[in-house]
Amino acid sequence: MSREETSIAGDRREEGDPRALYETISAEMQQVLVGNEQAVERLMVGLLTRGHILLEGVPGVAKTTLANLFAQATGLNYSRVQMTPDILPADITGTYVYREHTGEFELQRGPVFANLVVADEINRATPKTQSALLESMQERSVTIRGETLSLPEPFMVIATQNPIEMEGTFELPEAQRDRFQLKLTIDLPERDIERQIADRFDDNPQLGPDDITQVVDRESILAARDTVQAVHVASPVVDYILDLVAESRTHPDVSHGGSPRATLALLNSAKAQAAIRGRAYVIPDDVKLLAEPILAHRLVLNTEADLGNVAPDEVIADLLEDVEPPGAGTDEFSLE
């Protein structure tokens, strides 16, 4: 980093200010990225709460580029794995390799030993290979031949998948989906955004992640995490979270609703959302904004709902309508 950037990172490290951290990273990414501000904000939510992200979108909407830009701006060590049916678990975690010149086995670490791991088209890998990510995502460690090795900190998995090409793919099982804190859908851009993309890359066809520089450091990220942990969540807001998750379990279109892990994901993510917005307390609107990306991929709809083409986001819209937030009709929890 430059001297000026180092000074900025140092100031933010002392402050532990999630809002300043997000604004700095977002501004740097926008030099290449056009639109997708909400996705950047939710990547920050995941980073500040030790969460993993599932990105879904059709080819060409910059899913992998988004992750790469985020890694560049944060200075995180980045690795990318192109998932295919023939990739093996050892290709993810690593293995011991015999070195003839020394006569010994040497550990060759896999791409999972990085701060930010992008599993591109994760649903193209076999279930056995997909499960190789389970331990690393949950335990933040990897076991190779009986030896448990810690992964670097921070550690975050961003997996992408294409919703329109299902032939030859393996849908993520519920246990795997539940380990992703948020699922983000990257939609096709509006015409004016796409025009900005065309103009920007017409002026500079080689524009890419290498044009992004590191603007924060590891210490500032860890300090911001501490700030997020200290965000206050009032008891009525906690009850609101519990009510939403409980309602997801009894909705007539749902076979299996959110688990306690979903409750914790909603709680922690709402704290990060509040901190990024510059508040030291959570309001119901933080919970509402995050209900869909946290719950949608966790809901298992019943057969009748599947046959009726009911979408998870429709169910979540019902939950938000049916469950009354605290302070409804008052100014107690209104947006600032």
From TrEMBL:
Domain AAA+ ATPase: 49-190
Entries under SUPFAM superfamilies matching the protein: P-loop containing nucleoside triphosphate hydrolases (SSF52540)
GO molecular function, one term: ATP binding
Record lineage: Archaea, Methanobacteriati, Methanobacteriota, Stenosarchaea group, Halobacteria
Entry-linked InterPro entries: AAA+_ATPase (IPR003593), ATPase_AAA-3 (IPR011703), CbbQ/NirQ/NorQ/GpvN (IPR050764), ChlI/MoxR_AAA_lid (IPR041628), P-loop_NTPase (IPR027417)
Gene3D superfamilies, sorted: Magnesium chelatase subunit I, C-Terminal domain, P-loop containing nucleotide triphosphate hydrolases
Any Pfam family: AAA_lid_2
Keywords: ATP-binding, Nucleotide-binding
Protein name: MoxR-like ATPase
Originating species: Halovenus aranensis
Domain of life, source organism: Archaea
